[in-house]
Amino acid sequence: MLHTNMAYTTRIAILASAAAILMALELPVILMPGFLKLDFSDIPAIIGAFALGPLAGFLIVLLKNLIHLTSTQTAGIGEMANLFVGTALIVPAAMIYKGKKNRTGAMLALVAGTISMTLAAAALNYWLLIPLYQMALHLPPEAIVNMGRVANPLIIDLKTFIVFAIVPFNLFKGIVVSIITMLVYKKVSPVLH
To answer: Is Transmembrane helix set as a keyword in this record (predicted)?
Structure first.
């Protein structure tokens, strides 16, 4: 029993470390506000969730954000956002994959996870995260909208910011992360099992 728990914990720690490294490597996305950057840190979390279960996926997301918190530039709000949105991707995907562990199940799981992440990101940004950014960073209400308008002139208020920045960004991220996961999972899963 102790050996099994140690192996499980070690796998989570290794995947969380890989996720934390990938989280630090951010790429800008064309036509998106400069603060919305793509990272690939959810890939180790999804791989861990598929191999070890939804709880492991959540723990990987939690640990990578705790590690990243040591160098935060967003007063911890960015890490909180990543935790909530990453969990919305990984946990539903892992739960679906757990019931159907094949290529079709993985694709369905990743599609469902991407939709879940996108909806969660839209709701969380509208009601929680953007107001927290404004309060913590002392930004006027129109500041974030203006940053979005620079990248996309269709953004004129908070609702259009969500529709034309948050939703497409998270759909794009989910698709990219899903494709890479599909390409690498079967190659690395034997090591995790």
So the answer is: yes
